[in-house]
Every structure is written in structure tokens, then in C-alpha cells.
Write a structure and sequence with these properties.
This protein has 377 residues and is an alpha+beta fold. The chain contains 12 helices and 15 strands. It folds into 2 domains: 166 residues, Aminopeptidase (3-Layer(aba) Sandwich), CATH 3.40.630.30; 198 residues, Aminopeptidase. Helix content is 35%, strand content 29%.
Length: 377
């Protein structure tokens, strides 16, 4: 049977591109089917504002007309500006066997060379704000919301193509039913008594304004991080629209210091627990089930996907104090109102000492490692 790599050019091709994941993970009990409409929106120009500053190509690997793999390659003008000229990326990678994997990676690399790129980073599906890195530890656990899941074989296939580690990303899991240790609790109590500090919930009635405020702090807080790409105004609006249904006011906090917003923390119920039985479909009845579940969500796990402290405060005692105050508020509501027993924090860059010191709460362990690879082209 001959392997053929062909470009994705039609809406039908995009559907096959999305549907392939169901074949890859058919027998994987840890995989959670994503919402097909969301994945389609991600890869469709005109729907995802990422395409306003980036371009991408997509391919399917086929044998006898049956898809056996997929990949994307992308060039982002903001990546070129922030990570260096000649930096291309690939992602959306899935494959049923080593031959398909090798052919797909080779195809993506050639496209990047044709675009003038001299270095390949991956996987990014499609950007640093989507699913980043290849899972290399934690295959037995279902992915939490907005995190990827991969086959163990992928690590060997990618490295066989000549790739080496560029950066590891960690997620931490801990039992959130356990209260903070006394030292941290004293720090929190002191913050609560400080009149210059104010912790407030977000106001969903002003959601667009609040989303812009939070993501503005994020752009500042993460600006020195490896791989950081600032969100554009249209991407902020797009992200806000996607996040709104899973945002709950008692789980999202903005910290103000001397009346200036300087930090934020977003906690969400693990939406994947609510999606697992929908098989990626909102119609005909999935949407009603999901809306009902989101009215009063009860999940075992909560996730902190985003957190940031203004750059000028990073490394200070105040930064840690604000972070732990927000963590404790969120922890208490997660357990008391949402019935959660565990939390996941991340991802966190392996060399981000400030965030790692916060993530390494007593009892917290690295439960998953995602690896970004690089290769000179």
C-alpha cells in the first residue's frame, strides 16, 4: 500500500483532518475527544484571527484513500519578530505509524524551507496560545482543558527525524482539599489586612472589558518568557468569546495594588470532564447536555490555565503574596462550591523559577511534561 501525502485544500479535507484523531486514539482510554467545531475553527482562515498575522499549510497522509496521519506547518510574523528571523513551526501532528510520521515531518520541513525558514520548532497547534508541546510524561491521565494528549510513540518518531529538546513545559497537580501551610497562610492573612491590596472577582456583566484587562496584564507579565507572542486585539476578543462560557466569577480574580490592577488568576472547572461523553459533537443533543452541565459544574479537577503578575513586581515578596492570596480564594471555592478534589497548574516553563516556586506548593507534583522540539533546516 503506497503512502501519499497531499495538501488539505477543501472543507471536506479539513473535516477528514479533524476526524483523524478519532482513529488515532480509538483505543486510548485517557484521550478526551475535542469539540470538532472548535478544531475546525482553529484551522480555518476567517474564523481564527491568528491567520491575520500568520500563514499555514496542512497535509494528510493517506493509504488507499484512508487518512493515516496529519500535520501543519506555519509561519507567524509575530514569531519571526519575537523569536528570531527564520523560525518556522509545525503542529497538529498525529500519525498511525512511523512511515507516515516521517513523511509528514519531511513535508512540513520542506514547506518551511520554501518559505525561507532556517529553523523548525514544534509542535505548536497552531500557536503558543493553543496546544503547545508533545506529551512525553503523563500518558495515563486524561488531558485537562486546553492541553494536548499524544501517543507515546511520537517522542521516538520526532527524535528520529533529527529533533532535539528546545524546552520542556510542566503541569503540576495537587490535592486542593489540603489547606495552605502555616507560613503561606500567614502571608495571605497579612495581605488581607493590607489596605493597599484589593482582591476582586471579575464582573461578567463587563466581560469584554475584563477580558481585555486580564489579557493586557498577561501580555506584560509574560513578555520576557521564552516563546512569548503577544495577543493582538482581535485575538483577545476571540479568546474572551471562547472562554466566557467556562468563566465563573468566583474562580477568576484580579489583584489591585494601590488601585492599579497588577495581577490575575483564572481557574476553570476541567471542561474535559464535561465533554468526555459527547464524542466531539454538540449536535443534535450535545449542546443541551453541555449547557446544563455548565449551569452548576461539578468536576474532580480544576485547572489554572493562566496567571500573571505585572513584570515590575516579579521577583518581589508582593508578587508571591498576591499569587497565594488568589490561589487560596480559588482553592476554597473550588472545593466548597464545585466539589473539586484536585487542581492542575500550568503549563510552566522548566526554567521559569518565579512561577515554579509558586507552582511547587506543598504536595504538588509534576504530573505531565510537554516538550517543544527544534531542528535546523
Amino acid at each position: 500500500m503506497t503512502l501519499v501525502i497531499r495538501p488539505v485544500t477543501t472543507a471536506a479535507d479539513r473535516r477528514r483532518f479533524v476526524d483523524l484523531a478519532w482513529d488515532v486514539y480509538r483505543d486510548d482510554p485517557a484521550w478526551v475527544p475535542p469539540l470538532k467545531d472548535e478544531v475546525m475553527g482553529l484551522i480555518t482562515p476567517g474564523k481564527n484571527p491568528w491567520f491575520e498575522h500568520a500563514r499555514a499549510a496542512f497535509w494528510l497522509a493517506e493509504r488507499d484513500g484512508k487518512p493515516v496521519g496529519r500535520i501543519s506547518a506555519q509561519v507567524d510574523e509575530l514569531v519571526l519578530h519575537h523569536m528570531g528571523a527564520g523560525t518556522g513551526q509545525w503542529g497538529m501532528f498525529e500519525a498511525l505509524d512511523a512511515e507516515a510520521a516521517a513523511a509528514l515531518i519531511t513535508t512540513a520541513e520542506q514547506w518551511l524551507r520554501d518559505q525561507g525558514m532556517t529553523r523548525a520548532l514544534g509542535p505548536f497547534s497552531l500557536s503558543v496560545w493553543d496546544e503547545v508541546g508533545l506529551l512525553v510524561k503523563g500518558f495515563d491521565q486524561p488531558p485537562t482543558a486546553m492541553m494536548g494528549h499524544h501517543r507515546p510513540a511520537y517522542e521516538g518518531w520526532v527524535e528520529a527525524a533529527g529533533y532535539a529538546k528546545a524546552k520542556d513545559l510542566y503541569t503540576y497537580e495537587l490535592d486542593i482539599r489540603i489547606s495552605m501551610v502555616p507560613l503561606i497562610q500567614r502571608l495571605i492573612t497579612a495581605g488581607e489586612k493590607n489596605p493597599r491590596i484589593r482582591l476582586r472577582r471579575v464582573d461578567k456583566s463587563r466581560f469584554a472589558e475584563e477580558a481585555a484587562l486580564i489579557l493586557g496584564i498577561l501580555n506584560d507579565a509574560w513578555s520576557d518568557n521564552w516563546g512569548f507572542i503577544p495577543l493582538t486585539e482581535s485575538e483577545i476578543a476571540y479568546a474572551g468569546k471562547k472562554l466566557k462560557p467556562i468563566i465563573f466569577e468566583d474562580l477568576v480574580y484580579v489583584a489591585e495594588y494601590e488601585d492599579e490592577p497588577v495581577a490575575f488568576m483564572i481557574t476553570i472547572p476541567d471542561i474535559n470532564e464535561l465533554l468526555a461523553d459527547l464524542d466531539g459533537r454538540l449536535f443534535p443533543f450535545g449542546w443541551a447536555k453541555l449547557l446544563w452541565r455548565l449551569r452548576k459544574p461539578r468536576t474532580r479537577r480544576m485547572r489554572v490555565p493562566l496567571m500573571g503578575v505585572a513584570k515590575r513586581l516579579q521577583g518581589s515578596r508582593l508578587a508571591g503574596q498576591l499569587a497565594f492570596m488568589m490561589i487560596e480564594k480559588s482553592r476554597a471555592y473550588s472545593v466548597g462550591k464545585y466539589g473539586a478534589s484536585h487542581g492542575e497548574f500550568g503549563w510552566v516553563l522548566e526554567d521559569n523559577q518565579g512561577m515554579m516556586s509558586i507552582a511547587q506548593l506543598p504536595g504538588a507534583d509534576i504530573n505531565k511534561v510537554y516538550r517543544v522540539y527544534e531542528k535546523a533546516l
